[in-house]
Write a structure and sequence with these properties.
- By secondary structure, this protein is an alpha/beta fold.
- The chain has two domains: 137 residues, Immunoglobulin-like (Sandwich); 362 residues, TIM Barrel.
- The chain has an eight-stranded parallel barrel, surrounded by six helices. A six-stranded antiparallel sheet has the order 16-20-21-26-23-24. A four-stranded mixed sheet has the order 17-1-22-25, with no helix packed on it.
- α6 packs parallel to α7 and α7 packs parallel to α9.
- It is globular.
Length: 513
């Protein structure tokens, strides 16, 4: 089925009949925690074409580029106002030896990427190239160190190479390689997924290793990154329990990973396209588990860290489906549909609700891998529905959250199972306006949502809506704009502001008084 064109969609919204009314109450008189812009972080791993081709084509490529980074992708990412990029992994990080990625590119060693596809890794993208990308994007850097197969000395020397302003041999080597001033490392992760690909460790063992490594990670006082301990995943809260008690002083946060699988089974996750409504439902049901995961881990943090020094960093999340048929299974390439856009928005609303502790997240991943923002094929590029959701939510970066409650919700039910029909979040943006995000999980039923705003009049709302006719609507290189946001507006009637929210949609508006 074809996606609705924006003009037709706008008319359809205006002409939609009335349905059971849901009420969203917002209290603008009680500002909550700031929604850290880093909640909208991105993740770029040496995996498939996530970096090579997707981002990096080399300075000699016919694809227009700036010092090797392709201009079209970089330009699209800049429009997202990406606040933070994590690199080089992921599982790849615990096999990455930083010295392989410095010096003349034609003299760097070629290795095999044993985690992802068994392909050659020529180390063309290393420390200097990554920080060049960071500076082109105007973002910050989250570097993940190698605890799995590295040593404390190797990790300490990498941090010195990047941040030292002295005349040490390592700082002079960085200058010789083309960078006079130290790099700014905003966050530094000590290992990744220590429970799995990072070493198959127990949390107590990792906590000892974390403290061991952290002892030797030294920088100039004004250049020390925020240190991140590698935490748990899914239902496992042991890592948060142990690390919040035993991690070294100066630790800024504990990471957490959770992926949304339609089936909940790793061996057969489900298809990215061509799925039936029961898998649309199960995907929504699975992703809403994020709220419970955060609540349980935050409860542990509140017990062990009552001063709230530690953040809870969901630095890998997103949908994970069976790989696209005919592609390298190790490249984790999947189509990105309207379903992914709705999943992203649901997670944003959850993160906003926990803004006090959830101060950073990273979707997996930025380009061509899993729930990507952008898909490329050689010189071609397209934006995914997930990209559009990120762009719609830009006003929430560093906005002040507001207490938001959904009342009289109409549940979405399939096979005697139910989830909330409407998800909502609101905040006062840095521009002073109140922004409201609404997600309708029901793929068949529109909803009328009345806005009860305390502390400010609401005369109208303007913004964008993202939806389509088909649950698996997606963009292709033949039709790169098959699904994209359409303008949205609503006016108050008799002092009451009601938003008509289409089925399977994401709506983000600014409320005008």
């Amino acid at each position: 089925m074809k996606a609705l064109q924006p003009t037709i969609l706008a008319l359809a919204i205006l002409a939609a009949p009335a349905f059971a009314q849901v009420n969203v109450s917002i209290d603008a008189t009680k500002p909550g925690p700031v929604i850290n812009k880093n909640v909208y972080g991105q993740f770029a791993e040496h995996l498939g074409t996530g970096i090579y081709e997707g981002l990096w084509v080399g300075p000699d490529s016919k694809i227009p580029n700036t010092r090797g980074w392709r201009n079209d992708v970089v330009g699209a990412l800049k429009e997202l106002k990406v606040p933070l990029v994590r690199w080089p992994g992921g599982c790849f990080a615990d096999e990455y030896h930083w010295r392989d990625g410095i010096g003349p590119r034609n003299k760097r060693p070629v290795k095999v990427n044993t985690h992802w596809g068994g392909v050659a890794e020529d180390n063309a993208v290393g420390t200097h190239e990554f920080f060049d990308l960071v500076e082109i994007l105007g973002t910050e850097a989250y570097v993940n160190g190698n605890l799995g197969s590295g040593t404390p000395q190797e990790m300490a020397e990498w941090l010195e190479y990047m941040t030292s302003d002295t005349k040490s041999t390592l700082a002079e080597q960085r200058r010789k390689n083309g960078r006079k001033e130290p790099y700014k490392v905003a966050f530094f992760g000590i290992g990744n997924e220590a429970w799995g690909c990072g070493g198959n460790m127990k949390p107590e063992y990792y906590a000892n290793l974390y403290n061991h490594y952290a002892t030797f990670l030294k920088t100039p006082p004004n250049a020390r990154p925020k240190m991140i301990a590698s935490g748990g995943n899914d239902d496992d809260t042991r890592w948060t329990e142990v690390l919040s008690r035993e991690a070294a002083r100066g630790t800024d946060g504990i990471s957490f990973h959770f992926y949304t699988l339609p089936t909940g089974v790793w061996e057969k996750k489900g298809a990215a396209t061509g799925f039936a409504e029961n898998e649309w439902f199960s995907t929504m049901q699975q992703t809403l588990r994020m709220d419970g995961h955060i609540r349980r881990n935050v409860a542990i943090l509140d017990k062990n860290d009552p001063e709230k020094k530690l953040g809870f960093y969901v630095d890998e999340w997103g949908t994970w489906y069976d790989v696209e048929p005919g592609t390298n299974p190790g490249f984790l390439f999947q189509r990105n549909t309207l379903r992914d856009a709705v999943v992203a928005a649901l997670n944003f609303n959850i993160f906003h609700a926990h803004a006090e502790r959830v101060r950073m997240t990273m979707i997996a991943q930025m380009v061509n891998v899993l729930q990507a923002m952008i898909i490329t094929d050689k010189e071609k590029m397209l934006l995914t529905p997930t990209y559009h959701t990120y762009k719609m939510y830009i006003p929430f970066q560093d906005a002040t959250s507001l207490p938001t409650a959904v009342n009289n919700d109409v549940a979405y039910s399939v096979d005697n199972k139910s989830i909330p029909g409407i998800s909502a979040s609101s905040a006062r943006g840095k521009d002073g306006k109140i922004y409201v995000a609404l997600v309708n999980t029901n793929p068949r039923q529109p909803s009328d949502v009345s806005i009860d705003l305390k502390g400010q009049a609401a005369s109208s709302a303007t913004g964008q809506v993202l939806t389509a006719e088909a649950m698996d609507a997606h963009n292709t290189f033949d039709k790169p704009q098959a699904i994209k946001p359409a303008p949205y507006s609503a006016k108050a009637v008799n002092g009451k502001l009601t938003l008509k929210v289409p089925a399977k949609s994401v709506v983000v508006v600014a409320v005008e008084s």
